[in-house]
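Structural biology now treats backbone shape like a language. To illustrate, our science desk offers a sequence and the tokens encoding its fold:
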Amino acid sequence: MSDQTGRGKSGMGDNAIEIRGLRKTYGGAKGQPAKEALKGIDLDIPQGSVFGLLGPNGAGKSTLINILAGLVTKTAGHVTIWGFDQDVNPRQSRASIGVMPQELNLDPFFSPRGALEVQAGLYGVPKAQRKSDEILALIGLEDKADAYARTLSGGMRRRLLLGKALVHHPHILVLDEPTAGVDIELRQMLWANVRKLNEQGMTIILTTHYLEEAEEMCDQIAIINQGEVVARDSTANLLGRIDAKAMVIHPETAPTTLPQAPGIVVEQRADGALVLNYHAHETSAEQVLEAVRNAGIRIRDVKTEEADLQDVFLELTRS
């Protein structure tokens, strides 16, 4: 789908988006206090990646996305999208990016095909280069191509938003909370489409509150908190930042004494399992097992659990 040739890719290196010193301040007029939504963000998003943009509510994610989409004017800084400086080439930079918004902002009297055709016209896509039927097939709406949008289910409308973001064949696709409130079937279809687009070379930027989704889909992640990037790394490296582990022991019989050792915190679950929490850089798994044996506990089953992206997120955004 991303077939825009002749675009300003030269000199952009390996990044689809480059952001330097990006600031956005709201208010401050008529004696009102100003709110700094973005506080000098520096961020590179590699070409061809599935890049997660995470953060709590009010962190600045939506402001950043709206600046990329050309919907909000930045206060300071530089943004380059697919090699185009947003200040120097605003039309080309905007044409390089497609955004699937959170809000279901569809005209109820347009059909899906009509909505795609109008959107393509707004972007100046010549009729010969439009791929409305191909997009309808991709999003699973070919059988609803001529139905009024108001007759579509909520899930179908969300798919149509994805289609509208693709009409101008962008190199970069931004998905802003794409699966919020949708059912499992639609979520699976959406991610299948995203994987297909990414395999074709499209760069995907994802914001989501479903951290397990980001952990599964994204190869790189930036976490924003209070208008600043507090972490930016590969998903694997971010998970490696927190070495908290848990060993879950299922004893043969109920223990009379709980394991005790420096660096180990023990919890007992309702099903009788013991959870021994420890940090790998301080305590080895062998030391944990030794503490279990010293307490006279015979093990029926054992497994270990490692930190997930939610642990990293909470650790980095904790005030």
Q: What stands out?
A: The CA atoms of residues 153 and 159 lie 10 Å apart.
